[in-house]
Amino acid sequence: DLLVVGSANADLVIGVERRPAAGETVLGTDLVTSPGGKGANQAAAAARLGARTGLLARVGDDAHGRMLREAQREAGTDTSTLLVGGAPTGVALITVDPAGDNSIVVSPGANARLTPEDVAAAEASLAAAAVVSLQLEIPLETVAAVARAASGTGTRVVLNPSPPAPLPDDVLAAADPLVVNEHEARYLLDDGAGSDDGGDGDDAPERWAAALLERGPRSVVITLGAAGALVAERAPDGPVRTVRVASPAVRAVDTTGAGDAFTGALGWRLGRGSGLEEAVRFAVRVGAAAVTRAGAQESYPNAQELEKEFPA
Ligand code: ADP
């Protein structure tokens, strides 16, 4: 149903009372090492929910790489396109504050060696998937190669431009939907192309979504943290239709990987034939579940837990 093409990282997580300023040292909790990376997270989220999911990614021939493969196997992901070698496994250094907010430094490692040739070699997996999900923790030329190949095979593209970077027009145009959080939305709208981001105000997300649709994606989803998400689609030759979808109210423990859980779940539901709004209604439940537990992949619910704790 879903092929995720993206990063796999070892997340090295430390809890802190507050973040250090430049030149300052603060003490944190014991280190927790866990599987992460936006691509691996999305695949694990979908697979754990029961999706038939593949992950095209690259890890190093090292302990972190073996941990990542094992985590995907446990979640139920098809790891036949999880490639090994070229550089050490990518690492993310993460601090989590008492509010559950995170800040992250990423060393791409093997993720930077996932090439367009690797994409070409996995073309059968791409052609077999209803949806391919992309993020930007791998080379942009690799992302572009997937978007191009997907248009040839009729595979729907879900694109989360994170970490945000300037995107070629054909990649933006392939996105259906473009999935962004508030930070990524502001970045894309403030890229020097002269677009007014609409400023702030209660309806800012609606204005961002309309402005983002002007850039070419077929649809846009803006995630709004505790407030849920905004769905925006342009009717053929018609007006922009926007819908807000509320997230279940939860006590946030750790937001690490919440957006990835949301996007993995969204891609799966779209691959199963759901409409965009229906898929987002499902995805906000998965995102909410993910913030109620610590960690990224470890915080993701299976289908039974989701139905019990966050019924539709
Ligand atoms: P990112 O993690 O990429 O910054 P968001 O913070 O917007 O993305 O979160 C993604 C999704 O996770 C939201 O759309 C929502 O469904 C869920 N979520 C995140 N934070 C919360 C929260 N505090 N309460 C409930 N749901 C949340």
Summary tags:
single chain; 312 residues; alpha/beta; UDP-N-acetylmuramoyl-L-alanine:D-glutamate ligase; 9-stranded mixed beta sheet; 4-stranded mixed beta sheet; 13 strands; 23% strand; binds adenosine-5'-diphosphate; cytoplasm; PfkB_dom; potassium; carbohydrate metabolism; Ribokinase
Furnish the topology, listing elements before pairings.
Elements: E1 2-5, E2 9-15, E3 32-36, H1 38-49, E4 53-59, H2 63-75, E5 82-84, E6 90-96, E7 102-107, H3 116-121, H4 123-128, E8 131-134, H5 140-153, E9 156-159, H6 169-174, E10 175-181, H7 182-189, H8 204-214, E11 219-223, E12 229-234, E13 240-245, H9 258-271, H10 276-291, H11 303-309
Parallel strand pairs: 1-4, 1-8, 2-6, 4-5, 8-9, 9-10, 10-11
Antiparallel strand pairs: 2-3, 6-7, 11-12, 12-13
This protein binds adenosine-5'-diphosphate.
Summarize the structure.
InterPro entries: PfkB_dom, Ribo/fructo_kinase, Ribokinase, Ribokinase-like. This protein is of the alpha/beta class.
